Amino acid sequence: MDIKQCRYFIAIAEERQITAAARRLHMAQPPLSQQLKLMEDELGVALFERKGRSMELTQAGRSFYDYAVTMTKYMEEAVMEMQSFRYGIRGKLSLGINTISDRLIPQALQQFRTTHPQVTYKIQQNESAQLCQLLGEGKIELACVRMPVHTEQYEVLHLPQEALFYISSTPLKSADESGIYFQKLADIPLLLPSTEGLGMFELILQKFREHHVNPSIAGECSDINMLLELVRLGFASSIVPHTVLQLYHEHPFHVYRIQDAQSTVDSALVWHRNRHLSKPAQHFVQLVQELLPSRLV
């Protein structure tokens, strides 16, 4: 048995279908089925129980899964370590970025680029739920997500909390210089960032629910540039985290910080607990930790 067979087994165990595992491994289904049979014959035990189209791990399979993950992890670490001795830190940093990402991440990437000039980058933007799926599939190593997400499978590095701000093309008569409260926004048409049921859209709705306010939602917009332009034109108002104001400060909005308790949003850098991180990813996590305010580390 070799490491390649262990990877085959892990894919089947996580996908729970030969077809899906073959697709993930970019191979045909019959050879994968044959490899599984060879493994079970060599080990002398059944690793899976077939239930219709689903493959469920047996007790022996569950035990072997832990060993297989550990073995592949150590082998990947050994290969990456030897490559770093030979070439220095190089390779690809694959990073998922939330639709509205924390400002710290671009700053960290700029600094990382300076200190690791041989590293290349794959930066992919998506909603937090999709980013977690990409992490699970091994298509990215790190993801900057908006919390909360289910973190049982992930290591989590929390980033600074951000205040929420109400933005509009016209001033609010009921607001003072210190800001505005959710209750005052109940009847104002809002165009919220992200997509209904996901990401920032759901986080903002949850904040309204926590304060027992039923907002007037005019719509949703997953393109932040389009959202800001529509707000500028008076199409609707919006609520955005502080990062948006920092990155798009040239837009002429009337801006009011939301003053209610717990009117902040959280984000985090996450990675899969049972997957080996490449040297570039390890060094990037270390850099982000160094850039965080001391109270968060």
From TrEMBL:
One of its GO terms (cellular component) is cytosol. CDD domains: PBP2_LTTR_substrate. Keywords: DNA-binding, Transcription, Transcription regulation. PROSITE patterns: HTH_LYSR. Pfam families: HTH_1 (PF00126), LysR_substrate (PF03466). Residues 1-58 form the HTH lysR-type domain. One of its GO terms (molecular function) is DNA-binding transcription factor activity. Belongs to the LysR transcriptional regulatory family. This is LysR family transcriptional regulator. It comes from Paenibacillus xylanivorans.
